[in-house]
Amino acid sequence: MQLTATNLAPTMKGFAAGITEERLDEFRLRLESRRTGFSLEAPFYTDPHLFNLDMQAIFGQHWVFACSVAEIPEPGDYVTLDYGPYSIIVLRTDDGGVNIIHNVCRHRGARVLTELKGTTGNLVCGYHSWTYSPEGELIHASAPGEMSFDKSCYSLKRGHGTIISGLVFLCLAEEPPTDFLETGKIFAPYVGPHELEKTKVAYQQNIIEEANWKLVMENNRECYHCDGHPELACSLFPTWGLTDETIPPHLEDVWDRNQQAQAALEFRCRRYGLPYEVVEELDTRIGGIRISRESLDGQGESFSPDGRRLSKKLLGDLPDFRLGRCSMHLQPNSWFHLLSDHVVTFAVFPISANRTLVRTTWLVADDAEEGVDYDVDALTHTWKQTNLQDKNFVELCQQGAESPFYEQGPYMKSEYQVEAFINWYVTRMREHVG
Questions:
Q1: Are 161 and 99 contacting, i.e. CB atoms less than 8 angstroms apart?
Q2: Residue 204's beta-bridge partner residues?
Q3: What is the H or E stretch that residue 213 is in?
Q4: Cβ distance 197 to 69 under 8 Å?
């Protein structure tokens, strides 16, 4: 678990140069006067200048989930990521590591790789054939009659990259937050037994949500709206985030069933030596995290109508299908469900102040055979439907934030993780703008 980078891009202090000092003072005041326990003021969801600050202060300075190793399993495999003003190449190296390279040719700025994913040796810009090594070093840039120049001065710019338990993260900062190493040590014992290095992509879904990225993350951090997810409610207890004191009468039976299922799950985890305890440091560390292993309804195996497994192949060295789900939230852009039979990863990539890409990827054991061990439609049905429902919820919130009659509303007790996300965000922004 190492953090590596060479030829880093320069610091981005001038990135938000279009914002006047007067506007920056306004944003500082909004951050300092933020009303605890309430949603943010409308400009945080609608203002393009504030979006630029988000890209600089959050996505330009902190560790971001990029993909899993199942998406780039072999040396030379790559994915490209476009979010905010950035275009990034995530390239698997010969030694099993990952290179994070800005997808901007050093000649005249063209995109070097134009596909979402693929396999490559050297990186060749399609415009004038400037050719770079997998490490980004310029190795070919010739033209008839052209005098020689120092190629070492024109390498592709690099970011930091690391792989932890099969999950790939990147950071574009000159000096990334070092506490992410400690965050990795927290989640590695939970994620490691699923052995993502031995999985493959069964399906990937990309959805554009017409909403600010923070609204997407807020929606994920609570289950107050889970009555709107009928497919998910078959297996995921809709009491997530609730307590004995906050259970509504219509969910009391579900709460009791959940408590019994959780006790049985924890018994199995202790028997198998698997961690299950809740670790919750969403806004008390820079690399904010929440992770636990939680029971599922029905048979307790997977996200299906009856809770039964959706793939016949166990992941890694897991001994039992009845292990519920390992649920992990990471700030600022990801969440994960790791089950015994498959894994679902979610990545949020902001596009503009009111548009966000949500990428969902389903992973199964690399020796699982489609049509024999799993049916891709059944595997993906619950979260495909849930994602579309969430898209609708989030877009309704964006429409409200753009109304002149929008006013901050209070978070309920069950929405404490939303408050934690917003507190993390506001803290990071305050640190950045001073």
A1: yes
A2: 361
A3: helix 213-220
A4: yes
Q: Which helix (H) or strand (E) holds 190?
A: helix 180-191
Which of 158-189 are b and which e, b meaning 16 or more Cβ less than 10 Å from the residue's Cβ?
bbbbbbbbbbbbbbbbeebbeebeebbebbee
Q: Among 115, 133, 142, 91, which residue's Cα sits nearest to residue 124?
A: 133
Element (DSSP H or E) covering residue 220: helix 213-220
d(CA 353, CA 227) in angstroms, rounded, equals 28
Structural domains present in the chain = 39-164 (2.102.10.10), 179-433 (3.90.380.10)
2: pLDDT strictly greater than 80: no
Distance CA 35, CA 172 (A): 30
Which candidate, 346, 369, 417, places its Cα nearest to that of 167? 346
| Mean pLDDT of the 35-55 span | 97
For residue 389, give both structure tokens: 């429902």
Question: How many CA atoms lie less than 13 Å away from 37 in the CB half-sphere?
Answer: 4
Burial (CB count within 10 angstroms: exposed 0-12, middle 13-18, buried 19+), residue 417? buried
CB atoms within 10 A of CB 352: 14
Helix (H, G, I), strand (E, B) or coil at 68: strand
List, in sequence order, every beta strand (DSSP E) within 258-407.
279-281, 289-294, 325-330, 334-338, 343-352, 355-365
16: pLDDT strictly greater than 80: no
Distance of alpha carbon 72 from alpha carbon 98, whole angstroms: 9
What is the predicted pLDDT for the residue at 107?
94
Please say whether the dihedral angle defined by the alpha carbons of residues 266, 269, 273 and 274, taken in this order, is positive or negative.
negative
Query: d(Cα 61, Cα 432) in Å, to the nearest integer?
Result: 9
pTM, full prediction: 0.94
Distance (Å, whole) CA 132 – CA 125: 8
Nearest to 240 by CA among 253, 254, 230, 228: 254
